[in-house]
C-alpha cells in the first residue's frame, strides 16, 4: 500500500473516531486534502485512494497541477485556501469551485465579475484571522460581517456563501486553539441570525496538528496536508 493511501485511511479513521466520540453524525466532517508543494503524482495516489477534494494555497500551482489531473479525473473539487490576489481571481475560479480565503470585499466583487462572465457559481468561505500565524483573514469581525452583507444584497448572484474558515495558532496550548475555533463559531452563529437566507453552514477548521480539537468544537471540514502527504519541501520550485 502506498504511504499516501495508508495515511489517508488513517486520517479518515481518526476523523470518524472523533466524530463518533463526540456524538456527532457519521460522515458529518469532510476531509480536504491539502496538496500544496506536493506533486501531481502524490495527488494522484490520493485520488486513487478515493480522495476527491483538494486544497491549494497558490493559484498558479493549483492551476498547473489540477488542470492536468482534471482531464483524467473530471469530478475533482479544488479549494483555494491561501491568500488570494485580485489579479489571480480569474485563474483561481477557472480551476477551483471553492474559495475559502475571502478576506476582503474587493475579492467578492472580482469573483462575481469573472464568475458571471464564465457563467459559473463559486462557493466562498469567509476567513477570520484568529491566530497570529495566518497571513490572511479578516482581522475584524465587523469587516467580515460587512462582506457577508455585501453578498446578501443580490449583488453577487454567482457567489454562494457557504461558511467560515480559520487557522488556529501553531501552539501546543489546547486552550488557545479552542479559543480560536470558538471565536469562529460564535461569529458564524451571529451571521446566521442576521442572514438566515444565506446557507453559511460550513465551518472549515482543523489541520494536521489540531483537527481532533476542531471536530470536537463543531468543524464540518478539516484541511489536512502534512499528515497525508508528509512534510512539505518549500525549497522545491513549484
Ligand atoms: C497548509 C494549510 C493547511 C494544512 O496544514 P497541515 O498542517 O499540513 O495539515 C490547512 N489550511 C491552510 C489554510 C493551509 O495553508
Report on this model:
With 238 residues, the protein is α/β, with parallel strands linked by helices. It has helices at residues 3-21, 40-48, 59-72, 89-95, 105-118, 141-151, 174-194, 211-217, 226-229, and strands at residues 30-34, 53-56, 77-80, 98-102, 122-128, 159-166, 202-204, 221-224. Helix 5 (105-118) links the parallel strand 4 (98-102) and strand 5. The longest helix is centred in the C-terminal third of the chain and has 21 residues, at 174-194. The mean pLDDT is 96. Bound molecules: pyridoxal-5'-phosphate. Pyridoxal-5'-phosphate is lined by residues 34, 36, 57, 81-82, 167, 207-209, 223-227.
Helices, by number, come to 9
N- and C-termini, Cα separation:
27 Å
Low-confidence stretches: none
Overall number of strands: 8
What is the N-to-C succession of helices and strands? HEHEHEHEHEHEHEHEH
Mean pLDDT across residues: 96
Q: Report strand order across the widest sheet.
A: 7-6-5-4-3-2-1-8
Radius of gyration: 17 Å
Global shape: globular
Strand content: 15-25%
- Counting helices, strands and paired strands, the structural category is alpha/beta
Give the fraction of residues assigned to helices. Answer: 40-55%
Major sheet characteristics: 8 strands, parallel
Bound molecules: pyridoxal-5'-phosphate
Amino acid at each position: 500500500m502506498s504511504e499516501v493511501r495508508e495515511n489517508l485511511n488513517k486520517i479518515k479513521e481518526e476523523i470518524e473516531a472523533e466524530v463518533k466520540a463526540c456524538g456527532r453524525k457519521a460522515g458529518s466532517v469532510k476531509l480536504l486534502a491539502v496538496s500544496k508543494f506536493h506533486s501531481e503524482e502524490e495527488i494522484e495516489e490520493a485520488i486513487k485512494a478515493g480522495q476527491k477534494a483538494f486544497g491549494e494555497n497558490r493559484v498558479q500551482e493549483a492551476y498547473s497541477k489540477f488542470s492536468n489531473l482534471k482531464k483524467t479525473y473530471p469530478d475533482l473539487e479544488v479549494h483555494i485556501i491561501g491568500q488570494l490576489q485580485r489579479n489571480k481571481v480569474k485563474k483561481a475560479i477557472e480551476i477551483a469551485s471553492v474559495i475559502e480565503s475571502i478576506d476582503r470585499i474587493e475579492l467578492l466583487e472580482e469573483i462575481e465579475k469573472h464568475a458571471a462572465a464564465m457563467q459559473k457559481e463559486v462557493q466562498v468561505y469567509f476567513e477570520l484571522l484568529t491566530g497570529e500565524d495566518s497571513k490572511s483573514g479578516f482581522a475584524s469581525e465587523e469587516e467580515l460581517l460587512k462582506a457577508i452583507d455585501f453578498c446578501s444584497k443580490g449583488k453577487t448572484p454567482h457567489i454562494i456563501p457557504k461558511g467560515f474558515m480559520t487557522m488556529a495558532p501553531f501552539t501546543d496550548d489546547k486552550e488557545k486553539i479552542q479559543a480560536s475555533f470558538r471565536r469562529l463559531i460564535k461569529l458564524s452563529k451571529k451571521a446566521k441570525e442576521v442572514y438566515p437566507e444565506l446557507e453559511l453552514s460550513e465551518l472549515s477548521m482543523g489541520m494536521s496538528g489540531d483537527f481532533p480539537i476542531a471536530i470536537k468544537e463543531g468543524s464540518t471540514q478539516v484541511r489536512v496536508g502534512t499528515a497525508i502527504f508528509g512534510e512539505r519541501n518549500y525549497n522545491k520550485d513549484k
